[in-house]
Write a structure and sequence with these properties.
Layout: H1 6-30, H2 40-48, H3 53-60, H4 68-80, H5 84-109, H6 112-124, H7 126-132, H8 138-157, H9 161-179, H10 186-201, H11 211-228, H12 232-238, H13 249-262, H14 272-285, H15 296-316, H16 331-347, H17 357-384, H18 393-403, E1 408-413, H19 418-424, E2 431-434, H20 441-454, E3 457-462, H21 465-468, H22 473-481, E4 483-490, E5 493-499, E6 510-516, E7 520-527, E8 531-532, E9 537-546, E10 554-561, E11 567-573, E12 591-598, E13 606-616, E14 619-623, E15 626-628, E16 631-633, E17 636-643
Parallel strand pairs: 1-2, 1-3, 8-17
Antiparallel strand pairs: 3-5, 4-5, 6-7, 6-15, 7-9, 9-12, 10-11, 10-13, 13-14, 13-17, 15-16
Helix pairs in contact: 1-5, 1-6, 2-19, 4-5, 5-6, 5-7, 5-8, 6-16, 8-9, 9-11, 10-15, 14-16, 14-17, 15-16, 16-17, 20-22
């Protein structure tokens, strides 16, 4: 048998390389796919995809996103199930497809080697990987944008015959799907209009784009818009300016570029050198070198695909970090432009670039290596650093179930947490989403009073207060009428445990008149109970007063210690649950300050001392001295707490 010729071997090796890139993309996207909990928006996806098609259409008509992704996820869940892995796998497969689409688009604009490098950069891009591991529509948005641009270029290169007709049909379907996927997709049409302008006025080799071709493109766009007409009234109602303050345009350009290249799981300072290496590659990629495939027109087109979405985000008022994901569609062309820069350096295609061949190739390949190192650093944070983890609603629901309190209630401060929390919390304590709509103090007080009357313990999950409850009416009322015993940040969510009062919290039972430092007086306190069981909460109300305005913020600490002086439970908080800061106290005013100390489930029975003190917020070791009859101390014993058997 005759040995295959060199072209055949080259094609085989190219196929092997691309399969390897796709396998790498798959590994990075499926790795630890189910480890993290769904966060807020993913919970919305999960619960919305449970509904019927009619209810999905009805729900998304009043949502900030159109229905196609949710409809696709509804079909996908029938195949893959409703677990975190199952639902996120849809985005993972879309992300793998995006790597392939990046290569296909690259082959329309660049030689094989830079197109393959761009696919590799897409495979390891942290932003693309992050949204390949999220049950949301942003990866699908990027895929449809890339496919639509590839199909447009394919149609422009050969408009007649079956390949051109199939490209035209595919293009219309991609445009329609994109419009039904995200309201930012019209950006793609704006980019393509500029690409067509470049092709008309600055013809690309092999293209004969004139008025007839431009008219044909407009007809294809009109066909997609016609298919979108049923949803167009919803689109017009949903889009519009956003009142939020956004970054200055120059800051946004820098931060947006960093995010596109390395995602949100690494700080800019940690990837300074990778950012610099990428900037050099992009600068090389913009050089007006070459006349054929990969020539300067390709550079102009790729630059347009990267820059225009960022500009339109500024115009739309979405130049803020929560909306960076909108520009995910610019990540593939960013990689293609960097790959073009590498190719120009490798081949010496820029003017006067033929000298120093091996040094030149080593330099540009080293730049790619530095960029890859930056991606690796960001991915390490994504996979292993809890500081970058999504809010753990699964863990919060599990903690509530593990506590097993027989008469607990759960407050969601931001009603749109309902979907994600009830994905994990299907049975048990009732859930109260407060506030509903615009927060009203009288309505909130009435509703919370009714809830407190029904429960001995409340769990509160605070998220998005700046938008949902900017005056923190819910938290202020709870801190004034209940006892905050546990508070922790879970991602960008605060998880708080409250004990309900067993008697009037505003009445002081024990007067002490203790001076803390020079200006603060503890007038007295109320210790509701001196006997608890493991898993229960010791509740304490403190009555403070200051003689003059305070310039320092102080924290209250409560320690429950055993006979050996070892701390078995503690609670550190600024007064009023953090809402009655010492710097806001008015001289002569009595500050009523509720605290709770949660006794861990594993604490053995016995007697424990409850100790109280104050320390400077900026210096935890700087405790205020306390004047007592026996001399000056830095802790005061409030009482002895008896811990009994749990059963």
């Amino acid at each position: 048998m005759k040995a295959p010729g060199r072209p055949v071997l080259v094609e085989r090796w190219r196929l092997v390389v691309m399969v390897g890139v796709l396998l790498l993309a798959a590994g990075l996207r499926f790795y630890q796919l189910e480890v993290q909990s769904f966060w807020n928006d993913e919970g919305n996806s999960a619960r919305l995809s449970e509904r019927s098609i009619g209810l999905i259409l009805t729900g998304t008509a009043s949502d900030i996103h159109p229905p196609l992704y949710y409809l696709a996820l509804r079909g996908w869940r029938e195949l893959a199930g409703e677990s975190e892995f199952g639902l996120r796998a849809f985005s993972a497969y879309v992300g793998i497809g995006l790597v392939g689409a990046t290569f296909a688009l690259g082959r329309r604009l660049l030689p094989w080697l830079p197109a393959g490098l761009a696919a590799l950069l897409a495979a390891i891009n942290p932003a693309l990987i992050y949204y390949s591991q999220e049950a949301r529509m942003y990866e699908l948005l990027a895929l449809l944008a890339t496919l639509a641009t590839w199909l447009l270029l394919r149609w422009l290169a050969a408009p007649t015959g079956p390949p051109g007709r199939w490209a035209a049909v595919g293009y219309v379907l991609c445009l329609t799907a994109g419009l039904y996927t995200h309201y930012f997709f019209p950006t793609v049409l704006a980019v393509q209009a500029i690409l067509l302008g470049l092709a008309v006025f600055l013809p690309w080799p092999g293209w004969q784009v004139g008025r007839r071709r431009l008219a044909g493109w407009l007809a294809l766009v009109a066909a997609a818009v016609a298919l979108y007409l049923p949803w167009l009234p919803v689109f017009l109602r949903q889009v519009g300016g956003r009142p939020e303050t956004q970054r200055p345009a120059l800051d946004f350009a820098v931060e947006g570029g960093r995010w596109l290249a390395f995602g949100g799981t690494v700080e800019a300072a940690a990837v300074f050198w990778p950012l610099l290496a990428l900037a050099v590659l992009l600068g090389l990629g913009l050089l007006p070198a070459g006349k054929g495939r990969g020539g300067w027109r390709a550079a102009a087109g790729l630059a347009t695909m990267v820059v225009l979405p960022l500009l339109l985000m500024v115009v739309a008022g979405t130049a803020r970090e929560p909306y960076y994901k909108f520009m995910l569609l610019a990540a593939p062309p960013l990689g293609l432009l960097a790959a073009r820069g590498w190719w120009l350096g490798w081949s010496g295609a820029w003017p006067g670039g033929r000298g120093g061949r091996w040094l030149r190739r080593a330099a540009v390949t080293g730049l790619v290596g530095v960029v890859a190192w930056g991606s690796g650093r960001s991915l390490a944070n994504l996979y292993f650093d809890a500081a970058y983890a999504r809010a753990d609603y699964r863990g919060m629901a599990a903690q509530i179930a593990a506590d097993g309190h027989p008469n607990a209630g759960i407050i969601l401060n931001a009603a749109n947490q309902w979907e994600v929390f009830t994905y994990y919390h299907r049975d048990g304590a009732p859930v109260y989403p407060i506030p509903r709509g615009q927060p009203d103090a009288a309505d909130i007080e009435t509703e919370l009073a009714a809830i407190v009357a029904r429960h001995d313990r409340l769990y509160a999950i605070f998220w998005g207060e700046a938008e949902r409850d900017p005056q923190r009416l819910v938290e202020r009322w709870l801190d004034g009428h209940a006892f905050k015993a546990r508070e922790e940040w879970v991602g960008d969510v605060r998880f708080v445990t409250y004990a309900m009062p067993q008697g009037p919290a505003g009445e002081m039972e024990t007067a002490v008149d203790l001076r803390f430092g020079e200006d603060i007086l503890l007038l007295g306190y109320t210790l509701a109970t001196e006997t608890v069981r493991p898993g229960e909460i010791v509740t304490l109300t403190l009555f403070w007063q200051t003689e003059r305005p305070l310039a320092t913020r102080y924290k209250v600490f409560l320690h429950l210690v055993d006979e050996a002086g070892q701390i078995v439970a503690q609670r550190d908080s600024e007064p009023g649950g953090g809402l009655a800061l010492t710097t806001t106290w008015t001289p002569g005013q009595i500050v009523v300050d509720n605290h709770g100390v949660l006794v861990p489930a594993g604490v053995p029975p016995g007697n424990y001392r409850l100790l109280l003190g104050l320390y400077d917020l900026s210096d935890p070791a700087g405790r205020l001295p306390i004047e007592t009859a026996g001399g000056e101390v830095d802790v005061y014993e409030v009482g002895v707490i008896g811990v009994g058997d749990r059963g």
